[in-house]
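Exercise 3.2. Students should predict the tertiary structure of the chain below and write it as structure tokens, then compare their answer with the key that follows.

Predict this chain's 3D structure.
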Amino acid sequence: MLYQWFQNITFANKEALSLLLIIPLLAFWYYGNIEKRKGSMLVTTTHFLNNIRTFKTWFQHFPFVLRCLALACLIIALARPQHRFAEQQTEGEGIDIVLCFDISGSMTEKDFTPNRLEASKEVAESFVNDRPGDRIGVVIFSRQSFTLCPITTDKTTVLSQIENIKSGYLEEEGTAIGSGLATSVDRLKDQKTKSKIIILLTDGVDFGGLIPPDIAKEMAKLYKIKVYTIGVGSEKEIDEQVQTPYGSVTNRKKLEFNEGLLKNIASETGGQYFHATDQEALKKIYASINKLEKTHIKVTSYERFTEEFLPWLLAAIGLLLLETVLRYTLFKKFP
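Answer key:
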């Protein structure tokens, strides 16, 4: 609870907090002078009671602890803690964006680190963070397609859903690009914003699905939705470990990739096609889309502060009063 309170607290006089160093010095001084504070009147008939522990002996240092706590509260009050409230006012119109992810088995190929899908998720998260004024949704597809996150301005929800994407989330295997694109269009077609785009990320090998890519492309054109397509991977060959009854065997496997389909979808909808061969190229592609699709929006940030020193000051006064009362009553010493 105290940790959460400090997360939104700033100090107007931060330099005053350096005075907290006095407290360990006082503790060191106090410990070194314990003997001098003992009573000076000795009673010869009570020497056999040296090892008797009472309530007062157990808590004899409690008034000093209270004094240190009071001093700490007073120093914090002097530092003027303030509770910070951040507000944003948005003016203008953003862009509605659907991130359409291929999560088929081929997206687990390891020509990216750690694989195509995980690398794509990481870069997409950075893209979302760079679009503060836009509404963003997430669609995933393999043989089927599914709206993972409806279009929203809640970036925390979008990022959480992207993080949860896993290959095999949709049980049936395949790569139904047409179905994924059609679902993305359906998310955008009724939106009132002037600019609507889809970022379709796949390895481009289409098979399966109920809606052909050509039909989905015509739907996007009908609703004036631009589609930016990103082809992930290449046609290079990699070594693949295959388990056989005779043990593990290394085979050469060609990574399939179809650029023609993605180029056609992008060009006919007014978008662009990009080819990502590694993670760095993927980052540059998202940066390019970020520049091409400008958001006409003005975000004004406000910060206001409320003073929070009074509770600390009252706590310091209360602790000092308690320490004084205890010192001259319960813990009073005789000469």
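Discussion points: The longest strand covers residues 81-93. The radius of gyration is 34 Å.
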